[in-house]
Amino acid sequence: MAQLIPELASDPQASRPQVGPEAEPAFVALDLETTGFDAEHDRVIEVGAVAFTPQGVLGSLEMLANPERAVPAAILELTGIDPADLAAATTPSAALERLAAFMAGREAVGHGARLDLAFLTAAGRWPAGTEILDTLDLARIFLPGAPSYSLPLLVRELKLLQPRPHRALDDADATRQLLLHLIGVVAALPAPVRAKVAALVAASDYPVARFVRRALATGVPSSALDVASNVSTAEPTRPTRPQRESQGEGEGEAAQDSPERLAELLGPDGPLARMLPDYEQRDAQVQMLLAVAQNLRRGGRLVVEAGTGTGKSLAYLIPAAARAAFRQERVVISTHTHTLQEQILGHDVPGLREWLPFSFTAALLKGRSNYISSRRWLRYLPEACASSEELCFKLKILLWLERTRTGDVSEIRLVGSEASLWSRIASEPLDCSGMNCTPETCFVHRARAAAEEADLIVVNHHLLMADAATGNNLIPEHQHLIIDEAHHLEGAATQGLRAQTDRASLLLVLDRLGEGLLGQLGRQTRLDVADRELELANDAARVARERCGSLFDAALVWAQEQVARPEGRSESSLRIQSGHRAQAGWVQLQGLAEDACTALAALDARLRRALNLAHDFVAGGDLDQALREVEIARTQLLAAAELIAQAFVTPDPDRVYWVHMPNWGPALALHSAPLEVGPLLSEHVYGHLSSVCFTSASLSVGGDFEYFLNSAGLDQQTDTLNLASPFDYLSQALMCLPTDLPEPREGAFEGVVEEVVADVARRIGGRTMVLFTSHRQLRDVYAGLKHRRDLDPVLILGQGMDGQRGHLLNSFVNAEQALLLGTSSFWEGVDVPGAALSCVVIVRLPFPVPSDPVFAARAERLRDSFRQLTLPIAALRLKQGFGRLIRRRSDRGAVVILDARLSSKDYGRSFLAALPPASRFVGPAREVGERVEAWIKARP
Prior knowledge:
Elements: E1 27-34, E2 44-53, E3 56-64, H1 73-79, H2 83-87, H3 92-103, E4 107-110, H4 114-122, E5 133-134, H5 135-142, H6 151-158, H7 168-187, H8 191-201, H9 207-216, H10 224-227, H11 259-264, H12 271-275, H13 283-298, E6 300-306, H14 312-327, E7 331-335, H15 338-355, E8 362-364, H16 374-380, H17 388-400, H18 418-422, H19 443-452, E9 456-460, H20 461-469, E10 480-483, H21 489-496, E11 499-502, H22 503-523, H23 528-562, E12 571-575, H24 578-581, H25 586-616, H26 623-648, E13 655-662, E14 669-674, H27 678-685, E15 691-696, H28 706-711, E16 719-723, H29 729-732, E17 733-738, H30 749-764, E18 768-771, H31 775-786, E19 795-798, H32 805-814, E20 818-822, E21 839-842, H33 853-860, H34 865-882, E22 893-897, H35 901-904, H36 908-914, E23 919-923, H37 928-937
Parallel strand pairs: 1-4, 4-5, 6-15, 6-16, 7-9, 7-10, 8-9, 10-15, 17-22, 17-23, 18-20, 18-21, 19-20, 21-22
Antiparallel strand pairs: 1-2, 2-3, 11-14, 12-13, 13-14
Helix pairs in contact: 5-7, 5-17, 6-7, 7-9, 8-9, 8-17, 13-14, 14-15, 20-21, 22-23, 22-26, 23-25, 25-26, 30-31, 30-37
């Protein structure tokens, strides 16, 4: 087989070179091509490696391997490997043995090499737990502006050479080139940044640290000066809020923000049509714009269900921007996900500014934990790194802080354990400097200052709830609110208005209070009387810690006695009900809770005395911050005491209480949530606003908005508008309803699911997404599908087995024949237009978990909980799952629903009425695959 470079002639068993920064490194870049992502079931089909130093290539290795099984067509097409060449090749074991010999004595390098290492480790050719220098990790750190970290896309972006992408040797050589490029990037860092980076990696011996030390010791190549470090310190421009003269309502219909004038902007002769040659006016979008504009004008409450493809973002952004621009009335837009927040600010708003005949400003505002805390970062940075992942995270943050002006975590792409590491440096109330905080020193303050100057503020539901819970002091004053993704409003409110504490976090506050904060106050006060009060407060903190610990220890034992966990279940929740309070053992828990609350109250009294004295005797400039931190700790302890008292002593009849026990350790968390959030929403979130608009693609069940109106605290007089999707579902979508399936709880059900999914995927070449409601069921079906020889041409992707949501979606879209199995996170927010997704299989109806504490408590209060609660929740969820299929006017495909209850139960008609009017096949399960295949092939 032809090779890019001659194979190394020297002894491959040479001793490992010195790895210190002064050594001349010898690397070997490697890559494996395999039949799939599972090291236990899949096989290696090609190995490639390049030995090199920064001065040049030493040699290469390229070998095919016969997997002795059919290779998925998607893999053959991706790599271009001829099956005949594989048939004549050596075994995977022999190829990996040769690769291991070639690698010996050299520093191994790979790109996204964890999969390669899994196959090498499974074959006994790589020591388990040994790390590799991964250019994927390095690129994420030192090339922050890259649009993608896929190796072929990086090669294209950096203009490297890769004649045969997805061939092992070419990928290995591309990795070599990328590593050399990264050496130049690190070497070209500005001197102040180089010093910070050098200090960070000085004491580490992880592969990434050794690489960075070598790169910093390298002279700056001229080719690297052009790319430098992608670190920019330029201050981005932000439009200021223009001052305009308000146009009075007396101008009537001639006003520039009148609904009719705004509708003309989307007309066939409007500015958008002039800018887009292929523009087509969408009647539903215009209707929604008119409704939103009227609601903003006259005030009130409006609920709009806008089907997929309506273009609802534009329909509410245009009148919102006009109202703010011409009337100086600020509008807040709230979404459920950060993704939609960023889409509005990063895509929709800039697009509007290109063609709207008036100007407006917009700002993004998120919850505190989305912003980095400079104080916490400076404390965390010097700590020793417990893993290479932590070192990579610190390097990434260090370089990001040189260029960010927002401090918003969404600017960087956190992967793996980095999300949990972020919690170490995220802004939190306990580290807030309060009055000492300025936009120059605090990213949270900077974001809020920008929001104060904006016409439109885009927030998320979590911040909206936090604003309500804190007396509306987080979001700047506004007159109007538009809630997108409103079907999540009740859940967000339940989450945002819940209270919780757990043993670890409560004791942590007490420990920090006694060991740190009170001591800090003591060092900054001068009089003995203050020292005495602080000593008494310390004693009170120790007593409170002991009593709270005793309570949670006893509560854990009691809860474990109440719950028999099914085997394999990772966690359990137990709702505290009146029957539990009548048990003999409850008296002990109640007594321990009263003792804990008494101790916390005594501590609070001591803290108040100590704080009053500290205020009188200031001895240091940092005292205000110390006082603030103690005040915040007081607030947290008082909230915990209130929850403990309610849960164990005097429960509020309008709240539900439960304990949660994870399976990973002896831990217990205590929770409470309001039984009904509608009245709270109505009073605290939008009761004081002039107008509120709620919108989503899934708000009604069969055209009835009753469930949403009740959950959102809206009366039956609320204006509602139901706008159908512009898609022609009768010609675009086929809905298959098998009539001979077993019930989902029957033992034969999973076998039937496997057969139907396999038949569909085989016939249409993958292009299928299967939605589960159970992780266990997904794993069982996945295992069965992976062993089927008839699916060898199909790349099978399972959530939790082959990666998480983002990685799986990327693999699914890029593979020609792929089958994706996912659970809850795939039921909505997934947009795969075109033929890449031609069939959605819904395994069972998405009924809520009946044992969920909040759901169960709410159900008990209803006359007919199934019709009033269970069915609407499941129907709206099913509607979301169905909506994954048709995303564009040109899409065509099938939805297969494998739950026989749609046909066998009376309530099946309610589910079907909630779905779009697609074409239907009702018949035997064995015919489903054939019908789906025929439907897709009949594409007009």
